[in-house]
Amino acid sequence: MRSAEFDKVAVLRAAMQAFLNKGYTKTSMQDLKQATGLHPGSIYCAFENKRGLLLAAISQYNQDRSDEFCAFFINSDSSKQGLETYLEHIVEECLSCDSSKACLLTKALNELAEQDDEVQTLISQQLEAWQSAITDKFARAQNEGDISDSRSAECRGRYFVMGIYGLRTFANTHPEPDTLKKLAKQLFKDVCA
Amino acid sequence: MRSAEFDKVAVLRAAMQAFLNKGYTKTSMQDLKQATGLHPGSIYCAFENKRGLLLAAISQYNQDRSDEFCAFFINSDSSKQGLETYLEHIVEECLSCDSSKACLLTKALNELAEQDDEVQTLISQQLEAWQSAITDKFARAQNEGDISDSRSAECRGRYFVMGIYGLRTFANTHPEPDTLKKLAKQLFKDVCA
DNA sequence: GCCCTATTTGAATGATCGTTCAAGAACTTT
DNA sequence: AAAGTTCTTGAACGATCATTCAAATAGGGC
């Protein structure tokens, strides 16, 4: 046996950047070759086809974002504080100039959901897990006494997720720091009320 | 002179449906021929190229949605009530099964913004006008005494728009009527507080 | 009713797309 | 060190894409 020469995670991260730049359809195999450094044949050998590379890149993206999310809550005894910092982090991300300010999950879902059930299902599950993780933090914050029980954690989690979706889209046309920060602040206030 | 034989508005509405179904890139000229009933040559004669047809379809879409928005406020002396009904209407739209539940403006912006400055500019202006119209209704509602002056109309307009963006995206993975209606209700409560 | 001009038609064009495959290169095992 | 197996390479393939254009068609002005 001879093992592949390339770093699979690095290739997937390069691919997700390429998909974020141009979208799935407009990203050609030539673009992917340039971004990943892999020749077409190697891509087909490792991921079956272009769509397989997208699916793998999406899963890697989800893994990375999930790890990133968890990092906001280790070494912290306040879940509410962690959620607030996480939201601020997302705002900073929206203000970034490169194309990684978008979320690959929602971007791919928007582009392919109506045409590809497998992509739709995969992304839906991942977004569901993300929402579930957020809901869990709200439940913890309620247990910690930082947020009241007047509304359920599920209710707050949904609203928070909706707000992040909205912030990301809003940032496309209004990338002004003050506006976004103010919106996020209001969102966090409302979701904790 | 000989005038064109087709109904331009009908063609543009058919084109926007096609673009909503598959997205701009994946909608082929064959799809557009089938959707509009126009042969390629006629499309190029009337709209210059595929991109020109998209730009025209976007403008028509914006016109239609703008008219629709205004209809919620004629024969009504309560701007606040109009906004609430409008939001309920958007929720109903999100629950629709066909692909017209998406917004062509945000869909096209997501797909093409990073690659086409003219599309980006056109859509940004139209979304700005929409936000401005909403802000104006909040200002009226404040004048009418239905909403307090504790926050500016601009602030409320931005938040409302952000919430609608969020609702639309959220509906992609959670098309459950009760959940969406509850989210919209909470949004309206928060934006009016 | 006839000519002129603009529109409609649909086949043809060149480019680019995702994908395949046979040959060459390199690592592992013996 | 040689053989065997797997990965890599990049040219070639058919399909499909947006676009063009010359011929056919049909309305408006006289």
TrEMBL record, chains A, B:
Pfam families named among the record's database cross-references: TetR_N (PF00440)
Location of the DNA-binding region in this protein: 28-47
HTH tetR-type domain: residues covered: 5-65
GO function terms (MF aspect): DNA binding
Keywords tagged on the record: DNA-binding, Transcription, Transcription regulation
PANTHER family with a match to the protein in the record: REPRESSOR OF PUTATIVE XENOBIOTIC REDUCTASE TETR FAMILY-RELATED, TRANSCRIPTIONAL REGULATORY PROTEIN
Protein name: TetR family transcriptional regulator
Organism: Pseudoalteromonas phenolica
